[in-house]
Amino acid sequence: MRIIRDSLFIDPSDRGAVAAIGNFDGVHLGHQVVLDVARSTAKSLDAPFGVMTFEPHPRQFFAPQSPAFRLMNAEARAHRLEKLQVEKLYEMPFNAALSALSAQEFASQIIAERLGLRHVVVGADFCFGKGRLGTADDLIALGEKLGFGVTVVPMLDLGAGEVSSTAIRQALEDGRPRDAAAMLGHWHRIDGTVIRGDQRGRDLGFPTANMSISGLHPPKFGVYAVTVDVLDGPHAGHYGGAASIGVRPTFGENTANCETFLFDFKGDLYGASMSVALVDFLRPELKFEGIDALIVQMDADCAQARDILAALPHG
């Protein structure tokens, strides 16, 4: 997959794609329906299959002090889109200049002139242009005028309401990772680089791989059964584990992070890229009176997580 971040200086080979447009936070099942339509349209037109998205997320641009809300960072989103066979990822810098474009200016300058898209695919709730005043119907009319095709895909409803990033965030806040996964079409993952922590886990007999959750919507604080993909380095592979997400209240005031204990693993993961998939919520974060009580609970957590992971379908 090729990532294009500059629409002003674009290679001619990157023009003429069929592109799905949206933020695609989480790349959930509703997004995947849009992507499926774009992929099939690209095939029928013998054109590259592309996605246009925005970085930072527009909500992050307009309200930088608001609580973290993203389900995945830009790298995790790109990794997921590549798995879905996207060939061209147009990651548009969302800045003051882009946000000031009217719906007509966005369609003419970005879609038609700079990227030269042949066809675009959007969800029925798509809004664009300054003040989000442009609608999917407006895009259809502009496409007819400017020479690109438009397909609008209805919102996906699984029977319990429309699938949305908002509903997924709520499921994670409630400690319901399996409900989130049902809407995502995959486990919710925390992706990032393993960083150095306080190394308390090593002293307790549970060495953990620590990852920042800064900028991401925090799931319910507590302990989870997880599967782990180490994406690079000498220990690359798939593992089971237990992860604690939160502020570690037993040890005072701390910045929230994700600490994962990989089962049956020995080695150094500092600096490795890792992806932690939340499978089940085991218990909320607790403050223990002493280290011995914490170790007893961690033993119980790991045993429960092993049983949950052993019951997952494989293959």
Automatic annotation (TrEMBL):
MF terms (GO), sorted A to Z: ATP binding; FMN adenylyltransferase activity; riboflavin kinase activity
Functional summary from the UniProt entry: Catalyzes the phosphorylation of riboflavin to FMN followed by the adenylation of FMN to FAD.
Pfam families xrefs: FAD_syn, Flavokinase
CDD domains: FAD_synthetase_N
SUPFAM superfamilies: Nucleotidylyl transferase, Riboflavin kinase-like
Organism, as annotated: Flavimaricola marinus
Record InterPro entries: FAD_synthase, Riboflavin_kinase, Riboflavin_kinase_bac, Riboflavin_kinase_bac/euk, Riboflavin_kinase_dom_sf, Rossmann-like_a/b/a_fold
Enzyme Commission number(s): 2.7.1.26, 2.7.7.2
Endpoints of the signal sequence: none
GO process annotations (BP): FAD biosynthetic process; FMN biosynthetic process; riboflavin biosynthetic process
UniProt pathway annotation: Cofactor biosynthesis; FMN biosynthesis; FMN from riboflavin (ATP route): step 1/1; Cofactor biosynthesis; FAD biosynthesis; FAD from FMN: step 1/1
Protein name: Riboflavin biosynthesis protein
